[in-house]
Specification:
There is one protein chain. The protein contains 10 helices and 14 strands. The chain has about 325 residues and is α/β, with parallel strands linked by helices. Helices cover about 30% and strands about 20% of the residues. The protein has a domain of about 190 residues: P-loop containing nucleotide triphosphate hydrolases (Rossmann fold). It is globular and about 65 Å long. The strands form 4 sheets. An 8-stranded mixed sheet has the order 6-7-8-3-9-10-14-13, with helices on both faces. β9 and β10 form a beta hairpin. About 0% of the residues have low confidence. Bound molecules: iron/sulfur cluster (SF4) and magnesium ion. The site of magnesium ion (MG) has 2 residues, from loops. Keywords: ATP-binding, Nucleotide-binding, Transport.
């Protein structure tokens, strides 16, 4: 609720704070148990920062993070510990996130060693069970990360994240570094594991086609704020925000299920994302919006519920 994450910008020889990078700027939403909420935005839109703040890997500057009825936004490290097991993250780069000196078995057992009091044998049994759940073999537990392909390494990262039986998993662009031919396999695995283990996902991507397959609802972020959030079908069939329309129409979208969708109204996204350190006044999207008008220069549009469950932040709807 009203979550902000501002990073100080230091300048001058005295390294004083000269401004703030508003990576996440007043974001509110809910995730329902068992659902997947897709979060889409360009690099620099704040989506990874939002994910890290939700898990308290970063402290919020302001706002409340409520997990399963408990406000965790101000909990100390010690008080956070029982929640750590329930919330995990799968990172984008399976090459960087797996320690190359540890065997796959050690990698999967490590969270159990740190977070539980299971015996060595119990940990080994869990690792065996988990490696098969992600579609690899028990014999792979003896091997090292470099012996695997990118897709297989991401399976290992997923096993590591899920071995603690979390309730909530943030997937931060987990397939972006993988070959397109492998992406669907890993997405399908994640979907199957979600159903089997009753997981709730926040699924971050820079591309609306990736989250279409896996999400129940989708949120679109722009410069640290939510532009639009809606049930999946409403967002893809009837996007309201000019930015969402642009994301859907700037290229003919061939989505992961194979539909070719190029019949949308064309809105081209001109220019690059402005700097989050110096966002435009009023509507932060106005510098790229073909429908910008006077009000957009000065007034910031609030997120309003336009239709049931379909929220948008744009003056065209107020
Ligand atoms: Fe475009 Fe104005 Fe809507 Fe912003 S508020 S998206 S500038 S029309
Ligand atoms: Mg990111």
């Amino acid at each position: 609720r009203n979550v902000k994450k501002y990073f100080p910008i230091k300048g001058g020889i005295l390294k004083r704070t000269v401004g703030h990078l508003k990576a996440v700027d007043d974001v509110s939403f809910q995730i329902h148990k068992g659902e997947t909420l897709g979060v889409v935005g360009e690099s620099g839109s704040g989506k990874s920062t939002l994910g890290r703040v939700m898990l308290r890997l970063l402290d919020p500057t302001e706002g409340d993070i409520i997990f399963d009825g408990t406000d965790i936004s101000n909990l100390s490290r010690g008080k956070m510990n029982p929640f750590r097991r329930d919330m995990q993250i799968v990172f984008q780069d399976p090459f960087a996130s797996l320690n190359s000196k540890m065997s796959v078995g050690e990698l999967i057992e490590e969270p159990l060693l740190v977070q539980t009091s299971l015996s060595k044998q119990e940990r080994k049994d869990k690792a065996k069970e988990m490696i098969e759940k992600v579609g690899l073999r028990q014999s792979d537990l003896e091997k090292y990360p470099h012996e695997f392909s990118g897709g297989q390494r991401q399976r290992i990262s997923i096993a590591r994240a899920l071995v603690l039986e979390p309730k909530f998993v943030i997937c931060d662009e987990p397939v972006s570094a993988l070959d397109v031919s492998i992406q669907a396999q890993v997405l399908n695995l994640m979907k199957d594991l979600q159903d089997e283990l009753g997981l709730t996902y926040l699924f971050i991507a820079h591309d609306l086609s990736v989250v279409k397959h896996i999400s129940d609802r989708v949120a679109v972020m722009y410069l640290g704020r939510l532009a639009e959030i809606a049930p999946k079908n409403k967002l893809y069939d009837n996007p309201l925000h000019p930015y969402t329309k642009g994301l859907l129409s700037s290229i003919p979208v061939i989505d992961i299920e194979g539909d070719i969708n190029n019949k949308r109204e064309k809105i081209r996204l001109g220019d690059d994302l402005p700097s989050p350190a110096n966002p435009p006044s009023g509507c932060t999207f106005r510098t790229r919006c073909p429908l910008a008008h006077e009000k957009c220069m000065t007034e910031r549009p609030e997120l309003i519920e336009k239709e049931e469950g379909h929220f948008v932040a744009c003056h065209l709807y107020t």
